[in-house]
Each structure stands twice: as C-alpha cells, then as structure tokens.
Design goal:
CATH superfamily of the largest domain: P-loop containing nucleotide triphosphate hydrolases
Largest sheet: 6 strands, mixed
CATH topology of the largest domain: Rossmann fold
Distance between the termini: 34 Å
Structural class: alpha+beta
Number of domains: 2
CATH architecture of the largest domain: 3-Layer(aba) Sandwich
Strand order of the largest sheet: 6-7-8-3-9-10
Helix content: 25-40%
Number of strands: 18
Shape: globular
Order of helices and strands: EEEHEEEHHHEHEHEEHHEEEEEEEE
C-alpha cells in the first residue's frame, strides 16, 4: 500500500482569541479528489492555506510526498493553488496567463510554449490562447485559472471554492469536467467548499469540518448514509433528527419515510397533516406536522404519479419507517 501524499499531524492555528484550526489529523491518498467541507469560519480555508504554505501553523506538522513541509515557503512546495477569484492578469493573453509561472522560473521559451499548449488542450481552450480574460465567459476564465495551476505539474493541486463564481447551470457542468480532468491526470486535488452538493458530487472522499476540527471523514455515501453525529446528519443533505432514548438520536432521511393515506405496515408510524409542499419535478418534498414528532420532512418520487395522485396541502396522512431505515447517533 502506497503512503499518503499528504499527512497532517496535530495542526493548529489561532488568530488572537479565535482557534481557527484545532489539532487536525488527516491523511489524503495519492490520486484522490478530496474535499474539505464546512460552513463559514469552520477552518477549512485556513487548513488549505497552511497546506499551501501561505499560513504558518502554531503547532503540528505537514508532510507532503514524504517530506516535512511545515516550515517550507510556498514556492518550494510541490503544490499549486487555484484561488476563488482566479486572479488572471487582464492585460495578458490567455496563453501568457497560463505560462506566467513558467516564465518566472526561467524555463526556455520552446518548453513554455509546449507546456502551455498542453495545458490549454487539457481544459479545451486550445483555440483561445490569444484572447484576453475580458473576452471570455466565466466558465472559460475558470478553466484558464485551472490550466495555469496545472501547467507547473504540481503533485498536489489546492482549489479554494473553485466553482463559487459560476452560475448554477455552469457549475453543474464544470463539476463533471473537473472530475474527468483529475482522473485523466491522476493528480491529487484538494477542494475547499461550503457547498455540500458540490463536495458530494465531485469528491472520492471528504472531511466535514466544524469549529476548527474534522468531525467525520469518509466517502460521500458513507457520510450521507452513516453520519456519526447530529451535526454531520444535519449538515449533509436533509434529515429528520429526533431522540429515541436518553442521549441517543436517530437521523431519518426524507426519502426513507413511507408516506401513505392509510397507516403503513411498518415498525413505526405517526399520523399528521401536510402543511407545505415543494414540487421539484421528479420529486416532491412535504412538510408534515405530526402529533408526536413535530414537523417532519418526507420526499417522494413523482416519476409514476399523475398530478391527481399527488398528496395535497392540508391532507391527513401517515408516515412510516423501520428501525434500519435510519441511522442511530450517539451524540
């Protein structure tokens, strides 16, 4: 088994009285697309910046590809970083932007031209090398920034909210493009995002952060189906969370609940009334006010339903589930 490309040991960072990162331990495997996911102020960007060498940890150690990089400056790390703002030079052409780092390193012009052409081909911008950033769409500027990060052939590529500046439709398409590119190159990508849908659809593994700590690490499937804590269950997707015993809780996903006009044949069943409906095309999300559990969220597929067969606001219904349809939480 190969050693992880990144090994973070006890990394901590404080800004005044604020503990931004609190003793994080983390390993990232070679060639994976890893996401750091969390809300604003959880420490994910600070952790990324310490990986890049842009911030110095107060304690702990960062090992990249077997080398201790804790005190090594950014330009001497086998790492490149793509910032949220893209930071393209407006007076330079696309090709000049992509090759900027190589020129700073003093590489021969023929080699720079070859590597820039390869990088632009990777992001499918090979015909736009002479354009200026102002002549590109938002998605194209994002790909220029990605090509500039890739052209230096880093062992580790760090991406800070890489899709945040794109509209929803473009973001969805670009996700698949970045996953394809990462798999094609076999590089290790570390993506920071607050968007759970983005992390779940792109990452092979992810870490959920809260208050400067990693609260759970795993595949998207693991974190959705088997959250370890109430925080993770509530942060990843949508969940009904309720106490089942002293200090024991259950997370029940809306799509796991059976919604019926008559009491269902399940281990647990509660009656209620539909108070709100969100129609989302292929599915509907219902808010049901129950007598014993308060408001519960239920999701149903609309694929085989006609408009007449959909449940209606104000309708009395039953909700049913079995014990193994949910996830028991200890905290």
């Amino acid at each position: 088994m190969t050693a992880p490309i990144v090994k973070i040991e006890g990394i901590a960072k404080r800004y005044g009285t604020v503990q931004a990162v609190a003793g994080v331990d983390l390993e990232i495997e070679r060639g994976e697309l890893f996401a750091l996911l969390g809300g604003s102020g959880c420490g994910k960007t600070t952790l990324l910046r310490m990986l890049a060498g842009l911030e110095t940890p107060d304690s702990g150690r960062i090992v990249i590809d077997g080398q201790d990089m804790t005190g090594v400056p950014p330009h001497r790390r086998p790492v490149n970083m793509m910032f949220q703002s893209y930071a393209l030079f407006p007076h330079m052409s696309v090709a000049a932007n992509v090759g900027y780092g190589l020129r700073r390193e003093g590489l021969p012009k023929p080699e720079i031209a070859t590597r820039v052409a390869e990088a632009l081909a990777l992001v499918q911008l090979q015909t736009l090398g002479e354009r200026r950033p102002s002549q590109l769409s938002g998605g194209q500027r994002q790909r220029v920034a990605l090509a500039r990060a890739l052209v230096k052939r880093p062992k580790l590529l760090l991406l800070d909210e890489p899709l945040a500046a794109l509209d929803r439709k473009l973001r969805e398409g670009t996700r698949f493009e970045m996953v394809r590119l990462q798999e094609q190159l076999g590089l290790t990508f570390v993506v920071v995002t607050h968007d759970q849908e983005e992390a779940m659809s792109m990452a092979s593994r992810l870490a959920v952060m809260n208050a400067g700590r990693i609260v759970q690490t795993g595949t998207p499937h693991d974190l959705y189906e088997h959250p370890a804590t109430r925080f993770v269950a509530d942060f990843i997707g949508v969940a009904n969370i309720f106490e089942v015993a002293a200090s024991r809780w259950m997370a029940l996903r809306p799509e796991k609940i059976r919604l019926a006009a008559q009491r269902p044949d399940t281990a647990h069943a509660v009656s209620g009334k539909i108070v709100d409906i969100a129609y989302e095309g292929d599915r509907s999300l219902y808010r049901v006010l129950t007598e014993s559990r308060g408001v519960m969220l239920v999701s149903t597929t609309n694929v085989t339903r006609t408009r007449e067969s959909l449940f209606q606001r104000g309708q009395s219904v039953w909700l049913g589930w079995n014990d193994d349809w949910g996830q028991t939480l200890d905290e």
